[in-house]
Amino acid sequence: MFKAISGLFSNDISVDLGTANTLIYMRGKGIVLDEPSVVAIRQDRGPGGPKSIEAVGIEAKKMLGRTPENITAIRPMKDGVIADFTYTEKMLQHFIRKVDSGRILRPSPRVVICVPCGATQVERRAIKDSALGAGARKVYLVEEPMAAALGAGIPVDEAVGSMVLDIGGGTSEVAIMSLRGIVYAASVRIGGDRLDEAIISYVRRNYGMLIGEATAERIKCEIGSAYPGKELLEIEVKGRNLSEGVPRAFTLTSNEILEALQEPLFGIVSAVKTALEQTPPELGADVADRGIVLTGGGALLRDLDRLLMEETGIPVVIADDPLTCVARGGGRILEMLEAEGDAFLSTD
Amino acid sequence: MTQPTENRTPQGSSSVQAGDLAKQLKAIRENTGFDLDKAAEHMHLSRQILVTLENEDFAHLPEPPYVRGYLRSYARLGELDAAPLIRNYEILRGADPDAMEKHFSPLNTQRTAPRISPEMARLGVIALLVLLLILISMIPGVRNWAQTTWNEFAYKTQQANLQRQAGLTGAANPGMDSPTASTAGAVTRPTTPAAQAIAADQPVANTQDLPSTTTSTVTQSSSTSTATSTVAPAVNTPATTTNTVTTDVNAPATLANGLPNPAVPIATAAQATAPQPQSHDAPTTNIVTPPPPPATDPNPSTPETTTPAATTDSSTAEAAQGNPLGTEVAIRIEFEQEVWMQIKDAKGKRIFEALGAPNTVKELSAKTPMLFRIGNATGMKLLLNGQPYDLTPYTRGSVATFKVE
Question: Which of A35, A287, A290, A303 best tests the B interface by mutation, with the highest count of B CBs <10 A?
């Protein structure tokens, strides 16, 4: 009863609870939060001592790999699902409070959360429970590809096939949709994190240098490429020389990173090809005519669309602001929720 | 696939004319030296889409997200920035080109701190709510309703408590249903620990809490003259008006003679100490009929006991209704549960204050007026001059406060 009354004053939100970043879209306001999904935990008085949250989000990400013994910076999400329930809940709670911080009353919001289509029932339940624990009044779960398609502005209501490839931090989701339903969906556990790991492995193998996750991510963003380009980009990075044990600087080129990323990129291309194989012919024809829409942070990898176009022969378009597509799609769902009720949404 | 607004130029965007985008796209393609087929092959788009784009025939193009992607491919082909092409397209199709920028930029970076801190604002809201409640309570109808509801609630709670207590008492001691049985039960209990006096003004009172001690005091007063002097100060001390001291008040001459006066209070004390069932059949019998003298009593005086007993008997009814000022009242307290009680005289001096242990009896006498304050009033029975005193009208919650005049 109280929740129902308080709901009259609440602002519903949609959450893209990603492995790398968490985005929150508030109805009527747009994207109000975009922070890394990282939590720094302080544990004083040794092992077994009381734990407390030191930092969440951007502040915690700065601590990744730079923490003393009593602080641990962790990513509570892994492969698109919850790896640490307690700290996911704390993180969500922190973010929801943060977006509500300017308000006098903070009633419980209705929350739309996007989940990977490959998430199991247990994983979905964990995500839902963590959102409820974080203060949500009601939680709706939405498949990430559907949210991404809505966020990208693709008309999924029509009887036309649309294909979306959402490359996130932990997973890549490929789905073909028509008439507001998913005809085919697949999820591979290859995402931005796997690309970073591939760069770390490549540097270790070829240079005998150890670099951290943050450095690998910087390399990927600055000179990472999925398809050979006309220009050769370079970057100077510092790492620990494994044989000498001391920090050393060295230079990497975009072609080397392209080589390093071949394996995970092949996994993504394979997933797309499999999806096209599984697509009914009519929908496949629509996709071939209009193209594949790329969303998620992975879409920002240089020439990834080019790679997919070359591999599949189908036009590939990158959505506008691909990083926020899922959260904005959740926002569209919130608007639909107001207009049409929640019959079309799942709460399980 | 049909777009809602096509080839419309919004107001304020007159710089972009229909055909501008087509010219730009064509120029890009021609600058790269590609014809339509080659460009389509290079961009992995169908030739038809390129033709449609270069004719600005938006009605036959897919949805805007796709078209923006195609325009980016054109820009890449010419190694140009795609933003001007997309902007022109948005204007030509009648959309606001800046709408996307506003929509996509995170708002939390531009968030400004509220002028009033959230804590202060919350306190203000709470204060307003309290004020509102006070104002509502001032409406006569609401106040009456609240009072009625509260009284009903209190009454129901009290009734429930009484029923529960009755049930518990009945279960624990079935023989206490009738007054006679109750009295008999109370008298046979002197062997149990008596009520523990917390603060008595005189040490004598402390010793008198235990019935056995009282008996020995009487015995001493009858046998030795020193015992008389020990009890004598109690005449002037209200706190020592328990048991034997009451006797002193009624018949100080007797005490001066060194003989115990088995008057009513003494008889009461003796009854409390000596477990003689035949003397406790009825409360009135306890007072009027002198009990058999204790074994240690050397000289029981039956005629002397009759007179004060008669006085007490005549005042029994008055005690229940309200005695005249300064009347001596015999008080009997039967504790069925752990009960705290306090009795004060007219001057506010404590006559009795104790935490009564369950299943114990306390007897004393004092002059009216007396102020009673009893915690857990349902856990005890009060008898004034042998008459049960109904505490229900004075009980609020579990505490009874009343005055015996």
Answer: A290
